[in-house]
Amino acid sequence: MTAINPIEEAGTLNSQLAALDLAGRLSLIAGLGGHAVFTTSLGIEDQVITAEIGNHRLPIEVATLQTGRLFPETLKLIDETENQYDIRISRYEPEQADIDAYAEKYGLNGFYESVEARHACCGVRKLKPLARALSGATIWVTGLRRGQSANRADTPFAEYDPERNLIKVNPLADWDIDVIRAYVADNGVPVNPLHQRGYPSIGCEPCTRAIKPGEPERAGRWWWENDEKRECGLHVHEEAAAAQ
């Protein structure tokens, strides 16, 4: 997809996507040309997007960041999803040299000790693999939703990502969790069993806990930190990540 003004292009795409249902949104994205990559964490909303891509055989690459610290249930779900939809989910793993360097500086589980150490771990296990996953991509598809947290309340359907020089598309931006669950139930979508155990948002095993009644969906992520806007860095610009 060639963009004369990528910011204006993203704005136009945002308006177009708002008027479509999910199938229409993904079909529009797939028809834009270029290379579209959907990065999935295998969470319930991501499984909805994967189901649409697989069922409609859309030319959108499905990729996941296999951080080396995922729950066994998540790893099993990768294989189950591939088999159900007859697709290939590309795995992007951290470099062992980066893991070793992190462990030498902070300790293997040093992310519990400081926000700096936690961001460094996310950088090694998520951000650097993400850069490889999106290398050559012109469109990045995500499962971000406005209802996931206050930090994501203004999530658009499409925006220009200047750091990665691509269009970032969030086709489920306006879906709430009840609509997600209804889609899963109606369409037999495989989901992580941890969702039924109080884990609405699932990341790396050491950094995720079940939430308590009344807590926001992402309260279980990096639960030992106090910042309500905590993120791993995948979906915030460098300036915002530095401020956190």
Automatic annotation (TrEMBL):
Identify the InterPro entries for this entry. APS_reductase, PAPS/APS_Rdtase, PAPS_reduct_dom, Rossmann-like_a/b/a_fold
Source organism (scientific name): Rhizobium leucaenae
Binding note for cofactor: Binds 1 [4Fe-4S] cluster per subunit.
| Protein name in the entry | Adenosine 5'-phosphosulfate reductase
Cite the NCBIfam families for this sequence. Answer: APS_reductase, PRK02090.1
Name the family.
Belongs to the PAPS reductase family. CysH subfamily.
Gene field: cysH
Q: What is its EC number?
A: 1.8.4.10
Listed GO molecular functions? Answer: 4 iron, 4 sulfur cluster binding; adenylyl-sulfate reductase (thioredoxin) activity; metal ion binding; phosphoadenylyl-sulfate reductase (thioredoxin) activity
Q: What class of enzyme is it?
A: oxidoreductase
